[in-house]
Design brief:
Number of helices: 28
Distance between the termini: 62 Å
Radius of gyration: 34 Å
Helix content: 55-70%
Strand order of the largest sheet: 3-4-5-7-6
Number of strands: 15
Strand content: 5-15%
Shape: elongated
């Protein structure tokens, strides 16, 4: 109850904390791209001075508010009338002030982690979480020292602001002297531990000892002053106030505080000037980094290059491969835009991150304005421009629809991936494009032979994933886009997206309803679209019947043997050359069911691990996989019923 009351007294400082952090995030969002300005240890350390300044202001301010509030509102007498000891009141006030400082550091930590997740690129392949959490613990120690000192100065009355200013000025001054004992009380020394990569390697004992000592001694002296506020301290104050000079000094306290803080600002400026040489050395390192030279800093391993349409982020060791890609990047962007009639160009440059991680199934990923495209050997060099064109297409779709495609992503996913695949595999002059389109057509025919996938199901990505392989949106989406182009020509995709932007469907509509709305707005027949899609699929099945016959349909028998659950596939027929059996398992229930691939035993069976069995009800999906892993065909999901006896 008492702590809640004290925290209520400090609500101004909590509002101040939220305001400052909100403004800081807003300024970051308005003045720079998070994608191109990622969170690194170096960047965070550059911001430490401002973080510390606000922590000092909030710490000393909340202590003054906590102790000054009672005198101003004359409620201390009421508290004294309750069965609450002075020690409890004092330490509750200091705890409330301490929690306020910790609140500042906690919110700063959360915003740093959030911005780090949003901005993670090749310049920061690993978010420095360990470093941030370690720094947070050191920050808690810094807050302890600030509150301890503040609890002593809180009894200075109107001279409080002046004394705080003098204390800060003195701290800045001793930093300029570079004395060893200055590090005992220096917050920057405390928050600048020795690092090893992204982790804290070791801590300096002097600032640790100094902050613990200052905080403990400060709280002890503060309690002594608080306990004597109605006794000896009060009598000394009354005697002092009888002196005319003291009374005049109290009246001059605001002016003295102003002068003190002006001196503090001048001292800060002097420290910045004195660090100019160090900063210039850092600037030289940055220039060396941009030139590809080694500067001894970790971020010198990463470089940037800008083209007309793209900004590439890459490791220095990737420069040769990166140069091959950026040399054709603008042409790739033009080719992708051409598929939409030259419409859908984005503002600024696309961020193309050449070393950021992506999902295991993907060669690249797009977050609508940022493309993650790792040069990890997953793609041959001749395929990279085509895959980049695929990812740029996703950006254009979002630009043309003004984000409406993302808002109706469940209904638009097959179009998203189908259109990107269509643009990726355009151009009969490219062997890669021809082979990729043929492979997607084969995959579509094989999937259809395992059971038709009607448009109602394809255009509801969630429903498709519950019954079939969710990645069918790529080959079947390609067939759907080809059907759309057959209906309305090459202008049809852009026309549909512009319609989605200008006249979006009513909220709540999904799947078929979204597309029927778009077809009605553009004057095309939905029934004709369904018929063309199904006819194209039937033609593909006929065209690839030989491949379909070489990969027989699969079922599995589930057996339990010596505690092991085995899936025994049948028939045990020889597949087409280059193909082998594959089995995917996932939990029947769960917000984000994780697919896991089972390994095939020498006996031609799949064994479930104990960990999988512990997940409860499972679904499995059998299929054939080509040796290059670019062609897979699966049966529909089947529930795995565990046998009750061996």
């Amino acid at each position: 109850m008492l702590l809640r009351k004290e925290l209520g007294v400090l609500r101004f400082w909590w509002m101040f904390i939220l305001l400052i952090q909100t403004l800081a995030m807003a300024m970051t969002a308005m003045t720079s791209f998070l994608d191109s300005d990622p969170l690194t240890v170096e960047q965070h350390q550059e911001n430490l001075s401002s973080i510390l300044i606000f922590a000092v202001v909030i710490g000393f301010g909340s202590v003054a508010t906590a102790f000054g509030h009672e005198r101003e509102h004359d409620t201390q007498r009421f508290l004294d009338g309750l069965p609450i000891s002075p020690a409890r009141v004092f330490f509750t006030k200091t705890l409330a002030a301490y929690l306020t400082v910790i609140g500042w550091y906690s919110i700063d930590l959360c915003t740093s982690l959030l911005s780090g997740v949003l901005s993670q690129t090749s310049l920061n392949p690993h978010l420095p979480t360990s470093y941030l959490l370690g720094l947070y613990l050191l920050s808690a120690l810094h807050g302890f020292a600030v509150v301890g000192v503040g609890s002593v100065l809180a009894f200075a009355g109107r001279w409080y602001a002046s004394l705080v200013g003098l204390l800060i000025w003195f701290g800045l001054w001793i930093r300029l002297q570079e004395s060893w004992w200055a590090s005992l009380f220096d917050g920057m020394e405390l928050l600048s531990p020795e690092l090893e990569g992204l982790r804290i390697k070791s801590l300096a004992w002097t600032p640790l000892l100094g902050h613990v000592g200052v905080g403990a001694v400060g709280l002890l002296l503060g309690f002594v002053l608080y306990a004597g506020r109605e006794g000896w301290l009060s009598r000394w104050i009354q005697l002092a106030m009888k002196i005319k000079l003291v009374r005049w000094s109290v009246k001059l306290a605001p002016a003295a505080a102003l002068a003190t803080w002006v001196a503090v600002l001048l001292m800060v400026k002097e420290q910045e000037d004195s660090s100019g040489d160090t900063q210039s050395r850092d600037d030289k390192d940055a220039v060396a980094s941009a030139a590809g030279e080694s500067s001894g800093k970790e971020w010198a391993l990463f470089q940037r290059h800008e083209t007309r349409d793209c900004e590439f982020l890459f490791r220095a060791t990737q420069r040769q491969d990166a140069e091959q890609l950026w040399s054709v990047a603008d042409q790739v962007c033009d080719e992708a835009l051409e598929a939409f009639g030259g419409q859908g160009r984005w503002k600024g440059r696309l961020i193309v991150d050449l070393s950021a991680p992506v999902a295991s199934h993907a060669a690249a990923q797009t977050d609508w304005t940022k493309i993650r495209f790792p040069l990890d050997g997953r793609l041959p060099p001749d395929a990279r421009p085509h895959v980049l064109r695929h990812e740029v297409t996703h950006v254009i779709i979002e630009q043309l629809s003004d984000g409406q495609a993302r808002k109706h992503f469940n209904a638009m996913r097959a179009f998203h991936e189908g259109m990107a695949t269509h643009v990726e595999t355009r151009g009969a002059h490219s062997d890669y494009a021809r082979e990729e389109r043929k492979r997607h057509h084969q995959a579509a025919a094989l999937a259809w032979s395992r059971g038709p996938v009607p448009l109602d199901e394809l255009l509801m990505a969630d429903d498709l994933g519950r019954r079939r392989d969710e990645f069918l949106v790529y080959p079947l989406g390609l067939v759907w886009v080809e059907s759309l182009i057959e209906i309305g020509g090459n202008e049809m995709p852009a026309l549909l997206l512009q319609t989605l932007r200008a006249k979006p469907p009513k909220p709540g509509r999904e799947g078929r309803e979204v597309w029927q709305h778009l077809f009605a707005q553009t004057g095309h027949s939905w029934e004709r679209a369904e018929a063309i899609y199904e006819n194209r699929m039937a033609e593909l099945v006929k065209q690839h019947q030989k491949l379909i016959d070489s990969l027989p349909r699969l079922t599995a028998q589930v057996k339990k043997n010596a505690g092991n659950v085995l899936l025994i596939p049948s028939p045990n027929a020889a597949p087409a050359p280059g193909f082998s059996l594959i089995c995917i398992v996932k939990p029947r229930f769960g917000l984000l069911p994780q697919r896991e691939r089972l390994e095939l035993t020498l006996e031609g069976q799949f064994r479930l691990t104990d960990e999988l069995q512990a997940k409860g009800r499972l679904l499995y999906m059998l299929g054939w996989r080509h040796e290059d892993e670019r062609m897979q065909v699966f049966e529909p999901w089947t529930e795995l019923t565990l046998p009750s006896s061996p």
